[in-house]
Structures are given as structure tokens and as C-alpha cells.
Design a protein that fits this description.
Layout lengths: L1 H7 L1 H12 L3 H14 L8 H12 L8 H28 L5 H6 L2 H14 L3 H4 L6 H11 L4 H26 L3 H5 L1 H34 L1
């Protein structure tokens, strides 16, 4: 419940952080984005909504946040985080599988979903996966485990990180001073989450429809 409250009211929590830590808030934002993208065991942290909320606050001068710093810091955190996650995935193939404690930390369902998504779309998954909660945390992990060449990975990693943070920081800054956004921010966060998971829902629906057609054909 505390996690749900944090995600849905991230604007209120971010205001508290900014009021208490001032310029140090940039490092806290960096840390949250880095942990969400860099540690495969933390896919539940609010990446999309945090970037949006920070950028929305940057649109209001009273908070003293700079939109360009928000963009650069979140982009750097996303790119560095994915690189660390890639190395964890690479390590897991050689050593991680031998450790029972490590296997218990990995959400097997999300890992398998990321693997299937990766198999279907190839390297561009590193970019597309950025926009899908949970999947984006496992894609770099799967990339490292699949022995993808790091040079290929880092190109897509940088592209995905810049596009992802650019989109949500741009939207947040643009809509930041709209009264409807200020007064109904929790609804905006829900909308962001729904839009983010929509591609997965569409793919799942298409897969079910294809499976039903195949079953009918077999009959």
C-alpha cells in the first residue's frame, strides 16, 4: 500500500524531497531512476511518473528545478542503470545461476516476458522496452545474458534512454502548469501507467486471438 501511495502521489512526495534537500533532489531522482533500471530486483519503482513529475515541477519557478538538468540527470541514470543491468545479466549466465539466493530475487514471470519480447523484436527491444514498466528493467538483463555485443547494446541503450526521458520530461514540462494536471495528478499517473502497458496488452491480445484461430483450425 505504501508503494502504491508513493506512485500515485509522487508529486506530493517529490515536493517534500525538494523542500527538504533542495539541489540534492537531483541526486535522489538520479538514484531512483538508476535503481529502477539498473537493479533487476527493483522493477516496481516509478520511472515514468517520476520523470514526468520532476519535469512538471521544473515548469513552476517556485521549486527551483531546471528542466535541462532533470533531462540530463534522468537520461544519464537510465543509460548507466541499463549498462549495469546488462553486466548483471552477463554475470548471471556465468556465475549467478549457481547462487540460489540470486535466483530467488529474480521475478521469473517478468524475465520470461522480457525474453519473449526480445525474441520477437530483436535489438530494437532495448529501445521499445524502455516505455514498458517492468519489461524495461529486465530487457538489459536479458541482453547481457544473451551475449549481445556490448557495442550494439550501448547504441540502443543510449537511444532508448534519451528518447524515454526526453518524452516524459517534455510532456511533464509542457503540462506542468495546467490546472487539470495539478489538481488531478494521481489520475495523470494512472494514465501514464495504462499507456505504458498498452503495447503489452495489445501484443497479448493478438497472441490469444492467433492461438484461438490455430485451435479452431486444428479442429
Amino acid at each position: 500500500m505504501q508503494l502504491i501511495d508513493f506512485v500515485l502521489h509522487i508529486d506530493d512526495h517529490l515536493v517534500t524531497i525538494v523542500n527538504n534537500f533542495g539541489a540534492g533532489s537531483y541526486w535522489i531522482i538520479f538514484a531512483i531512476i538508476f535503481i529502477e533500471t539498473g537493479l533487476v530486483i527493483c522493477p516496481f519503482l516509478p520511472g515514468d511518473s517520476l520523470v514526468f513529475a520532476a519535469a512538471a515541477m521544473a515548469a513552476n519557478p517556485k521549486y527551483g528545478l531546471n528542466i535541462w538538468l532533470i533531462y540530463l540527470i534522468t537520461a544519464a541514470a537510465a543509460i548507466i542503470g541499463d549498462s549495469v543491468n546488462y553486466e548483471i545479466g552477463k554475470w548471471s549466465v556465468h556465475s549467478g545461476a549457481k547462487h540460489e539466493w540470486f535466483n530467488k530475487l529474480i521475478n521469473e514471470k517478468n524475465r520470461i516476458a522480457a525474453e519473449k519480447y526480445f525474441e520477437r523484436h530483436g535489438s530494437i527491444t532495448i529501445v521499445l522496452g524502455r516505455f514498458i514498466p517492468f519489461i524495461r528493467t529486465f530487457v538489459p538483463f536479458v541482453s547481457g545474458g544473451s551475449k549481445m555485443h556490448y557495442r550494439t547494446f550501448i547504441i540502443y541503450n543510449c537511444l532508448g534512454g534519451l528518447l524515454w526521458t526526453g518524452l516524459f520530461s517534455g510532456l511533464g514540462y509542457f503540462f506542468g502548469n495546467f490546472p487539470i494536471v495539478k489538481n488531478h495528478f494521481s489520475l495523470v499517473v494512472i494514465a501514464i501507467i495504462l499507456v505504458s502497458v498498452l503495447p503489452v496488452a495489445i501484443i497479448g491480445l493478438k497472441k490469444r486471438m492467433t492461438l484461438k484461430r490455430e485451435q479452431q483450425f486444428d479442429k
